[in-house]
Design brief:
There is one protein chain. By secondary structure, the protein is of the alpha+beta class. The protein folds into three domains: 6-130 and 375-411, Nucleotidyltransferase, domain 5 (2-Layer Sandwich); 133-184 and 308-369, ATPase, nucleotide binding domain (Nucleotidyltransferase, domain 5, 2-Layer Sandwich), CATH 3.30.420; 187-293, Actin, Chain A, domain 4. It has helices spanning 72-87, 107-120, 131-142, 147-150, 186-200, 208-218, 225-231, 259-275, 291-300, 312-322, 328-332, 347-355, 376-385, 390-393, 397-403; strands at 5-11, 15-20, 28-31, 34-37, 43-45, 58-61, 64-65, 68-69, 95-100, 125-129, 154-159, 164-170, 173-174, 180-182, 241-244, 255-256, 285-288, 335-338, 367-369, 395-396. Strand 18, helix 12 and strand 19 form a beta-alpha-beta unit. The chain contains 15 helices and 20 strands. A six-stranded mixed sheet has the order 3-2-1-9-10-20, sandwiched between helices. Strands 11, 12, 13, 14, 18 and 19 form a six-stranded mixed sheet that branches. Strands 5-4-6 form a three-stranded antiparallel sheet. Belongs to the actin family. ARP6 subfamily. One of its GO terms (cellular component) is nucleus. This is Actin-related 6. Pfam families: Actin.
Length: 413
Amino acid sequence: MALQDVVVMDVGGGSVKMGSARQADTPKVFPNASAKLKGERQTFVGEAMLGMKDVLALSLRRPVDRGYVVDWSLQREILARALKGLLGGLSASSCGLVLTEPYLNLPALREAAVRMALDELGFASIYMAPPAALALRWHAQQMPGLPANAAGCGLVVDAGFSFTHAVPVFDWRVLPAAIRRIDLGGKALTNFMKELVSYRSVNMMDETYLLEHIKEQLCFVSQDTAADLRAARGRASPFRREYVLPDGLADTWGHVRTAEEAAAAAAAAQQQQRQGGPQLPKQPVLMVNNERFMVPEALFRPTDIGMEEAGLAEAIAAAVQAAHPHLHGLLWSNVLLTGGTARCPGFRERLFAELRPLVPDDYELAIYLADDPVLCAWRGAALLAASPSYPRLAVTRQEWRSRGTAALAKWEQ
């Protein structure tokens, strides 16, 4: 039976990217979690979290822990609810699926994902691949002139929610033995920021969801950490920002207070004091200063936060060294940055400065930041889903039911 569509899902620890291969420019992006306001019974699941008007003091449940699904019931519910709106009048039984899978995935977890997709969600067929291989496909389409892309070769840095991976790829396949991982991702950086701002400013230990948003708005990667730390001292710090916390009504996420807004608030307070009237209630404000660059700094210097691991540049160099020597030149010439943390301003520039001394002089080093690091893997998966290769690579429901796990062996060939 000819498929009517192929659904593409990039399921990460922090978010789900879901869309149709026929509409590759418009994926849904929503949290891979469920949330409940403290003291209330209503639960917001997955895509429904985008419509929340109050994001304070949320109780979060995530189906993914440390990069792997641990709550399949919640994961299935999140995906099933989003699929209803995506498919419209179509049935999943007439659609195929391309699904990302974790690096170095366990066979039992792969089988559980296939079982969920084919037996429970009802798809007609499925193909699974690691995000790095899919992201490189999209990068190759955007930059077809690169010799490394012609060979399906590159070093993909996946700065994700749970971990940060350096992943060598050749012939559109990851090289598992050469993958190197840093046990720091967006989640750990958010937790680190919570500790810093709670100690220095406002207690935000229960505001994980909001702090993720604030981190994305304010953090950047320093190009000279020592100089920026000196500049951050005192009231004249160029990095100091005031973040007005949400009120749960009109201002859902809060906002960075501008200089004009701060001056107006100070003038109103002084006028009210002179008139002798009751003081206006103050908006809660979170003060952020050197936290803006010290939080992402942990990815380059994990020892600063007590982790006995190499930094990102050293992890990338180790991944290249673990690959076959004949691939080193291609890998160094095609380093692709993906994942949410890669969007941090200054990330690419700092990585180049730290990586260049580790690269042999006779090799070119080129680092590319994906046009949208979060959607890069999804777009690559959408390319594959729309290509003639999909029917050959996919495992159908009939194959799964007749051959079981043996049907998945084609993905290893």
